[in-house]
C-alpha cells in the first residue's frame, strides 16, 4: 500500500507518511467544524516538505492526524505501510516513539534533565542504546557539544530548539514532524534551526514535514503543500519566500470572498533573502 507519488529525477519516491481521503470534523451539529475536507497528500521519504495555508486552513490538524497525535473522522493515515487507524493505543504509542520524531514550537524539553539526557530520552524510554555514532554526529551537527551538561533553563531559545531537533532525530525515525519550530525564535535562531532541518534531510537522508505560517521558513523546504479551507490546493517545488507569499495571498483572497469576511493573512516576516 505504500503510495509513491512524485517522480523525482526519474526515481519514484516512497512516502514516509501520507493521508488518504482525510476528513476531520471537530464538534457536531451546528457547531461542527470540518478542519480537513478530503485531503490526499503524501510526504516523500528523504524530503523536506512544508505545510502552509491561511490561519485555520487545517495545517496543524493535518500534521497531528498524519503523526498519530489525533485521529481522523474518516479516511486513513499511514506511516510507511502502517495504517494508524488499525493500531490500538499501545501500538500507536510505540509507533510514535520508535518511528516518528517531533519538534514543537514550545521546545518541550524536560527541565530537570541535561541536554545530553534530553537528546537520548526517546532511546532511554525505549530501553535501547541507539546508535552512538549517530548521536555523536547529531550533537556536533546541532553545535551543542559544549552544552551537554547544561539544563534547558541555562540555554537560549535557539539552543533549546536545537536540543529538541537533536532529540527528534536521535532514534533515526522514519519522519520528523515539526509544528511551527521557529515560532518562538528570533529570525537568526530560526534560520539556524531551519538550516539544521534542511541539513538533516539533505546531508543525513532524513525526512521532515513542517507546519509553518512563515514563507521564509517554508522556503527552506524542498516542496510546499498548500491547504485552504481544509483542502489541498497546490504543491510547489523549490519554493522561494516570494512565490509562497504570492500563492498564499491568492488563497486568502478567495476564501475571504467566499465567507464575505476580511481575510486573516498569516503573519509573514520579511521575504528578503529568500531561498537558503
Ligand atoms: N480541538 C478543536 N476543536 C474545535 N475546532 C478545532 C479544534 N482544533 C482546530 N479546530 C478548528 O479547525 C480548523 C483548522 O484548525 P487548525 O489549527 O488545523 O488550522 P491551522 O491552519 O493550523 O491554523 P493556524 O495557522 O491558525 O494555527 C479551524 O477552524 C479551527 O478553529
Would you kindly provide a written description of the structure presented here, covering whatever features stand out?
It is a single chain. This protein is an alpha/beta fold. It has a domain at 45-58 and 86-259: Rossmann fold. Helices cover 34% and strands 25% of the residues. The chain is built from 8 helices and 12 strands. Strand 1 and strand 2 form a beta hairpin. The longest helix has 19 residues, at 241-259. The chain is globular. Adenosine-5'-triphosphate (ATP) is lined by residues 26-27, 33, 35, 53, 55-61, 213.
Secondary structure topology:
Layout: E1 7-8, E2 11-12, E3 15-26, E4 33-44, E5 48-52, H1 59-66, E6 74-79, E7 82-83, H2 89-99, E8 100-104, H3 115-126, H4 132-141, H5 157-170, E9 175-179, H6 187-202, E10 208-211, H7 215-218, E11 223-228, E12 231-237, H8 241-259
Parallel strand pairs: 5-10, 5-11, 8-9, 9-10
Antiparallel strand pairs: 1-2, 3-4, 3-6, 6-7, 11-12
Helix pairs in contact: 3-5, 4-5, 5-6
The structure holds adenosine-5'-triphosphate (ATP).
Adenosine-5'-triphosphate is lined by residues 26-27, 33, 35, 53, 55-61, 213.
List keywords for this structure.
single chain; 276 residues; alpha/beta; Rossmann fold; six-stranded mixed sheet; four-stranded antiparallel sheet; 8 helices; 12 strands; disordered N terminus; disordered C terminus; binds adenosine-5'-triphosphate
